[in-house]
Amino acid sequence: MNKLCRNAKFQMLGIATSLGILAICLQGTRMLRAEPAQVGNPSSDAGLIADYRRVEVASVSDALEQLSGKRMYMSHRMQPLFTTKFAGFARTVLLKKDEGNTDPNALNGMLAAIDDGSTDSVYVMELEDGENIAGMGGLMGTAMAARGYAGAVIDGGVRDVAYLRKIGFPVYATGIVPSTSVHHYRFAGSQIAITCDGVTVHAGDIVAADSDGVVVVPRAEAQPVLALAQQMDFKEHSMYPVIEQTKSILEAVKKFGRL
Fold first, then answer.
1. Is the pLDDT of residue 15 over 60?
2. Which of 217, 252, 189 is nearest to 55 (CA)?
3. Residue 139 lies inside a defined structural domain of this protein
């Protein structure tokens, strides 16, 4: 009787062990069949921006030129406060000259435009004839950083640069000056089409920046431009080892079909 019980017990343990192994195998199979985590989903705004942060601005500029024939990059005048790379959706602001104005609310719209922005915004300002006027400084930069802005691009000057560098908020501007826009300018609109260093920028356009400069991608063209820029990046990065191995840039260009 005891022997029969022991045999039954061992059989039950064997069945339990087999079932446990089967469960583990099934779980592993489900894990293997699971979809891999996507790194950037271009169908979503966040995924689109994540992908634009991975491609080089030079490739984006080239892709835009090939697909649309447009020059959408800003000139060498637009310089960063420090080496940076970012991308986001344009939040546009226009300031017009109004020398000697005493209206305490003349620039309130500019401040409200900042407060209305959110994560992945890029503050893009057209400052009429403002190369020697600071369009923003440390206070505005702090507000943008607190709201998750990706960066700022100012067609004019910037000040409080030591503080902006300290908090690590990226700004491109045409110069560094100590001046103020208060009593010299008035708010003329936000989320409207502006011209920033010769490039037309609409609210919601994608603004991408890195060590090569700043480029603006019209929102409607974002997907095809991204796809072509990614191809260009892949080819260029593949060319480096080929050039090193063959010691010939001509051979690499013939092989990959790009320069």
1. no
2. 217
3. yes
Contacts of 152 (CB under 8 A, 6+ apart): 122, 123, 124, 125, 136, 140, 141, 144, 169, 170, 171, 172
Query: Residue 255 — φ and ψ, nearest 5°?
Result: -75, -40
Residues pairing with 158 in the sheet:
136, 176
Structural domain contains residue 26: no
8 Å CB contact between 172 and 149: no
Nearest to 117 by CA among 140, 95, 148, 86: 148
121 assigned to some structural domain: yes
pLDDT confidence of residue 189? 98
The two structure tokens encoding residue 98: 């109004």
User: How far is Cα 73 from Cα 208, in angstroms, rounded to an integer?
Assistant: 10
What domain range is 131 assigned to?
45-226
Domains contained in the chain, number: 1
Please write the tens of the pLDDT for every residue from 163-205: 999 999 999 999 999 999 999 999 999 999 999 999 999 999 9
pTM: 0.81
Distance in angstroms (rounded) separating the CA atoms of residues 131 and 37: 46
Give me the mean pLDDT over the 128-149 stretch. 97
Residue 118: what residue type?
Answer: S
CATH of the domain at 216: 3.50.30.40
Residue 253 lies in a domain: no
